[in-house]
Amino acid sequence: MKLALDAGHRAFADEVRAFVRANLSPATRAKTVSGRHYDREDHMAWQRALGARGWFAYTWPKKHGGPGWDVTQRFLFENVLAEEGAPRILPFGVKMVGPVIYTFGTDAQKDQFLGPIRDSSVAWCQGYSEPGAGSDLANLRTKAVRDGDHYVVSGQKTWTSFAHWADWMFCLARTDPDAKVQQGISFLLIDMKSPGVTVRPIIMTDGAHHVNDVFLDNVRVPVANRIGEEGAGWTCAKFLLANERLGIAEVAASKRGVRALREIARAEPNAGRTMADDPGFAAGLADLDLQLQALEMSELRALSAMAQGGAPGPEVSTLKIRGSEIQQRIAELAMEAVGEYAQPFQPGLLFHESNDTPVGRDHAPPAAPRYFNMRKTSIYGGTNEIQKNIVSKMVLGL
Amino acid sequence: MDLAFTPEERAFADEVRAYVRANLPADVRDKVASGKHLTRDDHMRWQQALGRKGWLVYTWPKKHGGPGFTPAQRYIFENVCAEENAPGIVPFGTKMVGPVIYTFASDELKQKHLPSIREGKMWWCQGYSEPGSGSDLASLRTRAERQGDHYVVNGSKTWNTLGHWADWIFCLVRTDPKAKPQEGISFLLIDMKTPGITVKPIVMVDGGHEVNEIFFDNVKVPVTNLVGKEGEGWTYAKFLLANERLGIAAVPQSKRGVEALKDIARAELDGGKPLIENTGFREKIADLELQVTALEYTELRVLSAMAQGDAPGAEASGLKIRGSEIQQRITELTLEAVGEYAAPYLPGLLWQGSNEAPVGPEYAHLAAPRYFNTRKTTIYGGSNEIQKGIISKMVLGL
Amino acid sequence: MDLSYSDEQKALQEGVERFVREKYVFDTRRKIAASERGWLPDNWAQFAELGWLGMSFSEDDGGLGGGALETSILMEQFGKGLVLEPFLPTVVLGGGLLAAGGSAAQKQALLAPMIEGKKQFALAWLERQSRYNLADVSLKATKEGAGWSLSGHKGVVYNAASADTIFVLARTSGGARDEKGLTLFAVDGKAKGLSRRDYPTQDSLRASELTLDKVSVGADAVVGAVDGAFPLVEGTVDRAIVALCAEAVGCMDAINAATLEYIKTRKQFGVPIGKFQVLQHRMVDCFTNAQEARSMALMAALKIDDADATVRAKAASGAKVQIGKSGKFCGQSAVQMHGGMGVTDELSVSHYFKRLTMIDLMFGNQQHHLTRYSNLAMAA
Ligand SMILES: Cc1cc2nc3c(=O)[nH]c(=O)nc-3n(C[C@H](O)[C@H](O)[C@H](O)COP(=O)(O)OP(=O)(O)OC[C@H]3O[C@@H](n4cnc5c(N)ncnc54)[C@H](O)[C@@H]3O)c2cc1C
Ligand SMILES: Cc1cc2nc3c(=O)[nH]c(=O)nc-3n(C[C@H](O)[C@H](O)[C@H](O)COP(=O)(O)OP(=O)(O)OC[C@H]3O[C@@H](n4cnc5c(N)ncnc54)[C@H](O)[C@@H]3O)c2cc1C
């Protein structure tokens, strides 16, 4: 057992770093550093660059066109990207639907969809939640009625992240209203340009537009766009959620967040010195740093067990829980460090690339909005309460 | 609304203080001040002193021989007693069974028991819990079978606090095994000297003996010892529990506890300076003090509502929850203040009144046992989980 | 990077697991705790025979060449069984001091027989005023001919009553709390002028107050450099912290397992109490806390031999913070979920709870190590 990297891995990390420095647009990087919002092209241009290098689908096995990296390489890749200020990879195509397609899809589906996911020429979104089906996802009502070689899909999806940027949506729909709740569900891929698809923004607590309502009004979807058997959608959905939870711990990004927080603390004045010199604040920061180290070690232990052949088990739910709490805590402490200058609200600066000058320091405008926004992390991807239910049942046998 | 005391109230406070100083035995006061364990006789001497003045049953109305204090007077009385290091009043007779007797029992029972409770001559204990019936008290099985003018009681009770010192026990027993669980229960007063009663000590986590199992083997109890009506015991039990929860918040004791903690933090050294100058530790004490203040004002609000004629409602559960957590936090911080010198375990000094010298300062050897022991406060009197269940149902309507 | 145990490490783990399962049934432990020494010489002889006492010492020092990870493997299982034998004071502290700072002669006279199971050690550093500051030492050693004379007081010295040699940290120069000016002496447990007050601790171990009244030792009693003991002691204590963290991980696993079992079987309101969601979620939090503790204890074991002193100190302090936090959470939760049974002496839970509580207090509690970590991290 050892933590140190061997020479091959060190060289790999250097290669990744050099690539990021050469290919990440400085404007995108600047947004990461200052905590401002990205636009679609920030994400897509960066993801296409990764795709061109064969690195976008970095978690995929070789036979599906992934780089076939070991656990350590994945770990290094994620960390270097985060350290260098790359935007987080939008997971919907590459981490969510991609693995579902290569695991459950037909050859024709693989041929059609995997390539554009790998090179990120197509953007995806996830159509699971509905107004009446959040934690209780199996309660979903969106209907898909068979009509020849099409399904006619009607219903409403909600909280759909980046649906307004998406070319495709993967979607759970009820194909058999008479079956037991989990059994009548199918997994469909829907072209967002299909007639009858309407996307309506939902504005979040910080003023941001990330999520949407998606209305489906008699949308015709070819039967060929169904993954797996009719009625087997729940199996795909569960498979996907387990993958989602692993990535959602966001350790690498949080490491960057803690470093940034330390810089903020050093810059913020406090009683003639800085917040970094305030023992109470410094202790809070140290505690956060340690929580993150514990999470990282836990994730490494899980990855190492997976590398020995274990599948990601329900324990990963605990990573999602702690990972989301840590993301929230970073935002909370950043706001605490900024103090009263967290109050001015400057949406232009945050969302619209305006060249307005910040009222406080550069890091001040995003502090409060980010704190508000980050409350989402304990809600999406299955709320933390639901994660605890899962662990309680699946791991503890309660 | 007025937080200030009237001249009459201030005079009352002086009167209480003078009485306590003149009548509280010095050895008892010193034991309380240093956190040592009291003997039965220590309690009795103080309670009888209060009894002589008519103040032992300070919560009772005039017509039952209480002093008829106003809420302000009660508050003053409790606080002055605590400040002067008087022992807490043992609640089983005065606060639990007494009010049940004067509210529900026959005149005969009132005449028999109320005077000796008022004077502090009899030691009572509470026989509710059983091995199979803790949180789910209504499932209790101790059986009382009517035979002529006696009940014959069989079964066992557990967790009886100071049952080994008791003259009398008030018990919940099942008189009708066929009725619904809550309906077949009766409330019996049993003389602890009755043949067939066995008291067996339970050793606690700190090594002390304060709770017992009590076994009833064909114990004959006169039917006249039944409180109220047969089968109505659950009503009286609930009445009693609501009273129990109010007193259990122990605010005056906690105020004294915080002051004692500060004294320890002043005496303990940290890097050559008093520990209380350590910012981190000082902030923990400040936080605790604020919690006590919040609890105190909540209790005052409840008392004031009661003075307007409202019964103590389910809000009393909230006081119990926070009060017990605060008691635990005081012991936790005391342990932290003492540090490694909390490690020595000196049972002779703790329990047997031996005159060996403590290792380290006097308060040090008490810190860990007290911390361990005080875990009980969130368990007894209805565990905090049960209290939250009550609030959620009765207050929030969930 | 590789986080899997080697075959030898797995075998060691299985061996010590078996020992704990067979020799440390809870009732047996109770008897051992009540015995005169508070631990069993037969068990100690078995530790020697199985090579556990020399496991983490270099082959040059007569050991088996293992390291911090092997110590952690042993300590974790000891934690599971609440093992009472004085492995920490004798092997990790005493042995560790000798391995890191002892002369060849000292190693031969003390370390070699310790590995054979023939010598017991203790470390006396704490004084009444020290709290967690290893340099807050006022016990004085003054030159006396070629040797030294030691006078003063030491407190809460674990295993002093059984120790053949007590390592005493003394001030030879400098002011109160100066890191420079401390010297470590190997003092015979029966030395003239050394008196003890022995007592049990809250968690059923044995410790003593020591009074040294002109205890004479030779020049060869000095371990390491005169006036230069601080880094030696600090480094060894940091290694002991890592070992203690592993022990705590074992305690947490055991207390969580006991609680899980309890809430599956204890019925109230006609159902096992584990059906109530508040308890389920609290149990999950316990499980998560134990996971994190395990992660941090492992990280510390892997970093404690790093070349960079700051990395080592941060690793030990970081793990100690986590263990303090998780240990308190698991301990308090276990008691709560056991209801009244949790505060009795009868069940093992209260004993794990007490041990976890005392582990937090040893060598600096959560707050102390958070401050230490914070200072190191902010300086970097
Ligand atoms: C920013 C954001 C982005 C999102 N992106 C997407 C997306 O791209 N695609 C998509 O399909 N969905 C998305 N979601 C939806 C997300 O998955 C749901 O919000 C989530 O599943 C919770 O559902 P809900 O909001 O309906 O809350 P509810 O299910 O109504 O829950 C409300 C509260 O009740 C609790 N609760 C519910 N059931 C239980 C239980 N059994 N035990 C204990 N507590 C319980 C919850 O934990 C929560 O605290 C997104 C959500 C957010 C906030
Ligand atoms: C020191 C001490 C003194 C005591 N003195 C007395 C006394 O003098 N007389 C007397 O009659 N009794 C006394 N008690 C008993 C006390 O009232 C019970 O311990 C208490 O009611 C809890 O019951 P239990 O111990 O059986 O725990 P259980 O009821 O078995 O509870 C175990 C755990 O499950 C939880 N739980 C149970 N039901 C639910 C639920 N529905 N929802 C969520 N969580 C739940 C509890 O909160 C607890 O955490 C004393 C107890 C102690 C510890």
Task: Summarize the topology.
The complex is a heterotrimer of chains A (about 400), B (about 400) and C (about 375).
Chain A: H1 7-23, H2 26-34, H3 40-53, H4 71-83, H5 91-104, H6 107-118, E1 124-127, E2 143-147, E3 150-157, E4 168-174, E5 185-191, E6 197-203, E7 209-222, E8 226-227, H7 233-247, H8 251-267, E9 269-270, E10 273-274, H9 279-307, H10 316-338, H11 347-351, H12 367-374, H13 384-395
Parallel strand pairs in A: 1-4
Antiparallel strand pairs in A: 2-3, 3-7, 4-5, 5-8, 6-7, 9-10
Chain B: H1 7-23, H2 26-33, H3 40-53, H4 71-83, H5 91-104, H6 107-119, E1 124-127, E2 143-147, E3 150-161, E4 168-174, E5 185-191, E6 197-203, E7 209-222, E8 226-227, H7 233-247, H8 251-267, E9 269-270, E10 273-274, H9 279-307, H10 315-338, H11 347-351, H12 364-373, H13 384-395
Parallel strand pairs in B: 1-4
Antiparallel strand pairs in B: 2-3, 3-7, 4-5, 5-8, 6-7, 9-10
Helix pairs in contact in B: 1-4, 4-8, 5-6, 5-7, 7-10, 8-9, 8-10, 9-10, 10-12, 10-13
Chain C: H1 7-23, H2 26-34, H3 41-49, H4 68-81, H5 87-101, H6 104-115, E1 121-124, E2 140-144, E3 147-158, E4 165-171, E5 182-188, E6 194-200, E7 206-217, E8 222-223, H7 230-265, E9 267-268, E10 271-272, H8 277-303, H9 309-337, H10 348-361, H11 366-379
Parallel strand pairs in C: 1-4
Antiparallel strand pairs in C: 2-3, 3-7, 4-5, 5-8, 6-7, 9-10
Helix pairs in contact in C: 1-4, 4-7, 5-6, 5-7, 7-8, 7-9, 7-10, 8-9, 9-10, 9-11
The structure holds flavin-adenine dinucleotide (2 copies).
Please provide a written account of the structure.
The complex is a heterotrimer of chains A (398), B (398) and C (380). Helix content of chain A is 47%, strand content 15%. Chain A has helices at 7-23, 26-34, 40-53, 71-83, 91-104, 107-118, 233-247, 251-267, 279-307, 316-338, 347-351, 367-374, 384-395; strands at 124-127, 143-147, 150-157, 168-174, 185-191, 197-203, 209-222, 226-227, 269-270, 273-274. By secondary structure, chain B is of the alpha+beta class. Chain B has helices at residues 7-23, 26-33, 40-53, 71-83, 91-104, 107-119, 233-247, 251-267, 279-307, 315-338, 347-351, 364-373, 384-395; strands at residues 124-127, 143-147, 150-161, 168-174, 185-191, 197-203, 209-222, 226-227, 269-270, 273-274. In chain B, the strands form three sheets. In chain B, strands 1-4-5-8 form a four-stranded mixed beta sheet. In chain B, strands 2-3-7-6 form a four-stranded antiparallel beta sheet, with no helix packed on it. A two-stranded antiparallel ribbon of chain B has the order 9-10. In chain B, strand 9 and strand 10 form a beta hairpin. Helix content of chain C is 52%, strand content 16%. The model of chain C has no long low-confidence stretch (mean pLDDT 97). In chain C, strands 1-4-5-8 form a four-stranded mixed beta sheet, covered by helices on one side. In chain C, strands 2-3-7-6 form a four-stranded antiparallel beta sheet, with no helix packed on it. A two-stranded antiparallel ribbon of chain C has the order 9-10. Chain C has helices at residues 7-23, 26-34, 41-49, 68-81, 87-101, 104-115, 230-265, 277-303, 309-337, 348-361, 366-379, and strands spanning 121-124, 140-144, 147-158, 165-171, 182-188, 194-200, 206-217, 222-223, 267-268, 271-272. Chain C is of the alpha+beta class and 380 residues long. Classes of the chains: A alpha+beta (398), B alpha+beta (398), C alpha+beta (380). Chain A binds chain C through residues 1-5, 9, 72, 75, 262, 276, 279, 282-283, 285-287, 289-291, 293-298, 300-301, 304, 308, 315, 318, 321-322, 385, 388-389, 391-392, 395-398, and chain C through 1-6, 9, 69, 260, 263-264, 274-275, 277, 279-281, 283-285, 287-288, 291-296, 298-299, 302-303, 318, 321-322, 367, 370-371, 373-375, 377-378. The structure holds flavin-adenine dinucleotide (FAD) (2 copies). One flavin-adenine dinucleotide sits between chains B (125-129, 134-135, 159-161, 211, 376, 379-380, 382-383, 385-386, 389) and C (266, 268-269, 273, 276, 278-279, 336-337, 339-340, 343). One flavin-adenine dinucleotide binds next to strand 1, strand 7 and helix 13 of chain A.
